[in-house]
Amino acid sequence: MKKVYLYFLITFIYSCAVTTVSAQLKADSKNGAVLNKYQDSLLRYTSTMFTATGNIQRFDQNAKFIKMLVNALKTPGSFTYGFDSLRTISITGSPDHAFRIFSWYIPTEEGTYRFFGTIQMATADGKLKLYPLIDDTEHFTDDNKITTNRQWYGARYYEIVPLIARGQKTCYALLGWKGNTAKTSKKVIDILSFDENGATFGKPIFEGPKNAAVRNRIVFEYNRQNTMTLRLDKKEQLIAFDHLAPIDSTMTGNFEYYASDSSFDAYRLVGNKLKLIENIELNNDPNALDDFYTDPKRKDIPVTKKF
């Protein structure tokens, strides 16, 4: 069989959330000043989105934030502006500079989360091209279904991994935190692809153990008091994660009692599939990006990690 070379595009992940001020001002000074003013206003909204009392006020502030964000992104040169002061908003760019994703959540009084976001595309003429992300999680009866950006399985993304196979159009693995309830948290590996019809989430690409059905999306659920590693291992060219297991065999299927068992598994691109590899060894210390939980009753602004 002719050998086909398939590989991850392993480069430094250019996270727009940590772009320096000098990099922000790649736009001319006039547009840079305009974007600075927008950022100041957006920052005030991000504070009230979390500190407001009750769902109605939180979502009202969030709606105002979204309207202002869209206006800001209409400013010429906005694609290279980092908005690095918006610490509660994850702004993650694809390593090939084709797009970036804004994603965030609003904690509800009920102890759950609503996710919001948009995909900003890089355009040759600098004009705004967005794919709004509409969280439709509450209507999901199957977290494995393939959807569009308007039926989004909401998450706060922190890493984008291009998946490149010879002869195929590039798609992207998105690593994200999904929150869930007061008892469990979730993380997700979703697949984003683009075509003439827009953005699509999910793809039959995940191969598990022998005889297991191919998955379109991978969702991890575990006890909220624990953390879970889910990250790109650039050196080994794989997506590594904690192996989750119940603390007792009688708790199988009850994810409130799931946590890491101190072993690690991974997905590696082989052929045109992401194949599961069990019991790997991580050379570096685990990087548990799981500090995004916010108690809806808290009044302070959540502080998130820089990636």
Strand and helix map with partners:
Elements: E1 6-8, H1 21-24, H2 29-51, H3 55-73, E2 90-93, E3 99-107, E4 113-121, E5 130-134, E6 147-148, E7 156-165, E8 171-177, E9 184-195, E10 198-201, E11 206-207, E12 218-223, E13 230-233, E14 238-246, E15 258-270, E16 273-280
Parallel strand pairs: 11-16
Antiparallel strand pairs: 1-7, 2-3, 3-4, 4-5, 6-10, 7-8, 8-9, 9-10, 9-12, 13-14, 14-15, 15-16
Helix pairs in contact: 2-3
Structural shape: globular
Q: Please, what is the average pLDDT?
A: 84
* Termini Cα gap: 41 Å
* Count of discrete alpha- or pi-helical segments spanning 4 or more residues: 3
Helix/strand-derived category reads alpha+beta
Biggest beta-sheet profile: 7 strands, antiparallel
Order of helices and strands: EHHHEEEEEEEEEEEEEEE
In which range does the helix fraction lie? Answer: 10-25%
Q: How many strands?
A: 16
Strand content: 25-35%
Rg, alpha carbons: 19 Å
Give the uncertain stretches in residue-range form. Answer: 1-27, 288-307
